[in-house]
Amino acid sequence: MPFAAVTYDIKPGFEAELAEIFGNFRRVKSDKVASETGEEAGRILSTAVFIRDDTLVRVIEYQGDLEAVARHMASQPGVREVEQKLKPYLSRPRETDTVEGFVATFQRSLLRTVAQISVRDLPTGA
């Protein structure tokens, strides 16, 4: 299963406030991600958020098409709520009020995957 990591440029010194925002995150109703035509395009398996100083990173474990995952996230009420609550703490604004803006910001904020290793990649019975 691939992972994606997205960065947020934040003002330092607000770790507790940011932890509270993500701690109160409303989960999505389903892990299934639909394409623009309504067909299943993937799944969001897990997420994690990390923070240090002026950098916040959201890691997403997913299956399927990453752009469809970003589009799905853009339409989720919990994600939209978090994006709104983050605005006062951002050192660099994010244009996430529309699906297109969210997807463009997601792609610009995406970290390059350098390595990814999982026990799930081992052959069965190894």
TrEMBL record:
Pfam families: SchA_CurD. It comes from the Bacteria. Residues 1-119 form the SchA/CurD-like domain. This is SchA/CurD-like domain-containing protein.
